[in-house]
Design goal:
Largest sheet: 5 strands, parallel
Structural class: alpha/beta
Number of helices: 6
CATH architecture of the largest domain: 3-Layer(aba) Sandwich
Number of strands: 10
Radius of gyration: 22 Å
Strand content: 15-25%
CATH class of the largest domain: Alpha Beta
Length: about 230
């Protein structure tokens, strides 16, 4: 099976180096499950100063990322049949677990565009199939959102996580939050592992875990719990 291809267009490509040494994600890259390619728009600037930003038309604070080097960088990237181009922007759709799963299942390649400075020229938007946000806040660039997507997608690829079943009941896989986990010792500072988890009754354990997922979601994320109830 061919590796899942990740292409990042960023003015700070060095920021992504730790990903290739990060636990199961790093091992996935080493094993050829995924491969990471970094593209710096500055390498595609055509003027003597390798300029990638300029002042905004109409005035205002900050500098704006120019379209020419970004387009040149994207157009130099090989195109796989199942490719999605994602633009990191606080104006995008909030990232969800279902997005990560969809990209892992339906794509062979993700191209992630990272903004910088005050923002990017509006004409860069047409390059993207989707615009993605981590939430209602602003960061100095799109590198952290892009790394989040890379981490979230690569861990879902076949072969990355040793026990695939561990991905099934984790938080947000089906809108519910994950159930509590315990390990040895059975008693710690007056806190005990629930008896059902030590009973050996797998049916009772599954029932308890599902109850805990529903209760925890209702208490901590009533918005998700309402959505889950509507799907039942």
């Amino acid at each position: 099976m061919a590796a899942f291809r990740l292409d990042v267009v960023s003015l700070a490509p060095h920021a992504f180096a730790p990903l290739e040494e990060l636990g199961v994600i790093g091992r996935a890259f080493a094993a050829g499950i995924a491969e990471l390619h970094l593209h710096n728009p500055r390498d595609y600037a055509t003027d003597r100063y390798r300029k990638v930003d300029d002042e905004p038309y109409g005035g205002g604070a900050g500098m704006v990322l120019k379209p020419e080097p970004v387009y040149a960088a994207v157009e130099a990237i090989p195109v796989l049949p199942r490719r999605r181009v994602l633009l990191m922007t606080p104006q995008g759709t909030p990232l969800g677990q279902s997005d990560l799963q969809r990209w892992a299942d339906d794509c062979d390649q993700l191209v992630l565009l990272c903004g910088h400075y005050e923002g990017f020229d509006e004409r860069i938007r047409p390059l993207a199939d989707e615009e993605v946000s981590l939430g209602d806040f602003v960061l100095t660039g799109g590198e952290l959102p892009a790394m989040t997507i890379i981490n979230g997608v690569v861990r879902l690829l076949p072969g990355t996580v040793g026990t695939a079943h561990s991905l099934v009941e984790e938080s947000h896989s089906d809108l519910l939050l994950e159930h509590p986990h315990y390990t040895r010792p059975a008693e710690f500072r007056g806190l005990s592992v629930p008896d059902v988890l030590r009973s050996g009754d797998h049916g009772a354990i599954e029932h308890w875990r599902q109850q805990q997922r529903e209760q925890r979601t209702a208490e901590r994320r009533p918005d998700l719990f309402t959505r889950w109830q509507q799907q039942q």
